[in-house]
Write a structure and sequence with these properties.
This protein is of the alpha+beta class and 263 residues long. Helix content is 45%, strand content 18%.
């Protein structure tokens, strides 16, 4: 057995895998060729991608970008799943501030992932979940991933929301849903303008879109109104009303790894 074959066998093992599709990103790239506003939005979206996800050697987490798709894998461990779920949440929220929706699938199984290649049965199944089962702008968990999240405890289940019987997805609006239930504290992220920006983007989609784009906006509207909009909370997304667009570009949560070992 040569060294290359040995390295492949050592790298191919059970991992958590998430496949993400940036919805409408291809159209954004095409529009950017002829439209200055679209170019600015594309640049902002790419900046948000670069600032959000990064490799994490501590849990063997790796990230691969390919056009409008992203594959993230991590070791099969409690910490690995936690970081994968929170990474999906952060990325989705960051892109929402630029009117980009995300759809995906999370699986568990055999996978190989380095800076040159990514493949495996879990990778293939994650693409199938995204394409054939997720439907709306949500990142859907496979049954085995949900069962492991349930085994790890309530703190993991708090990151999940149900989209019909047996359909659990990453609850990426959780910070907005819990915002007004949490008293102010030093360092708490202010989400008022961010929430208003999301309401504006989705309201505009509801008024101006048709077909599958409209269906995704309607799914998001129902998700927001069910989990976020409540008395004393953020406003509901209503049909036939486009609120004023907030100024600015919206906040961004940046992830950085800090090495504290010996130099």
């Amino acid at each position: 057995m040569n060294s290359t074959q040995s390295n492949v066998e050592n790298e191919y093992r059970e991992r958590y895998v998430v496949f993400l599709d940036l919805l409408g990103f291809k159209a954004l790239v095409e529009n950017a060729e002829v439209n200055a506003e679209a170019r600015e939005r594309l640049t902002e979206s790419l900046d948000r991608l670069r600032e959000t996800l990064c490799d994490n050697p501590a849990i063997d987490m790796k990230v691969t970008y390919c056009s409008d798709c992203i594959i993230v894998t991590a070791e099969r461990s409690q910490h690995g799943l936690w970081q994968l779920l929170t990474s999906v949440n952060i990325l989705t929220c960051n892109l929402l501030q630029n009117d980009v929706l995300v759809r995906g699938g999370v699986t568990l199984g055999g996978a190989f992932h380095n800076h040159q290649f990514v493949y495996g049965t879990a990778v293939s199944r994650s693409t199938i979940i995204e394409k054939d089962h997720a439907k709306g702008p949500l990142v859907l968990l496979s049954t085995e991933v949900y069962e492991e999240a349930k085994f790890y405890g309530q703190s993991f289940l708090d990151w999940l929301e149900e989209d019909g019987p047996g359909r659990y997805f990453v609850h990426y609006l959780r910070s907005y849903a819990e915002y007004h239930d949490t008293p102010p504290f030093p360092g708490k992220q202010v989400l008022d303008d961010d929430a208003n920006r999301i309401v504006y983007f989705i309201s505009r989609r509801l008024m101006e879109s048709s077909g599958s784009v409209l269906e995704k906006a309607q799914w998001f509207q129902a998700y927001w109104n069910r989990t976020v909009a409540k008395p004393g909370g953020f406003a509901a997304i209503e049909n036939g009303i486009i609120p004023e667009r907030p100024e600015g570009r919206g906040s961004i949560v940046v992830r950085r790894l800090v090495y504290s070992g010996d130099a």
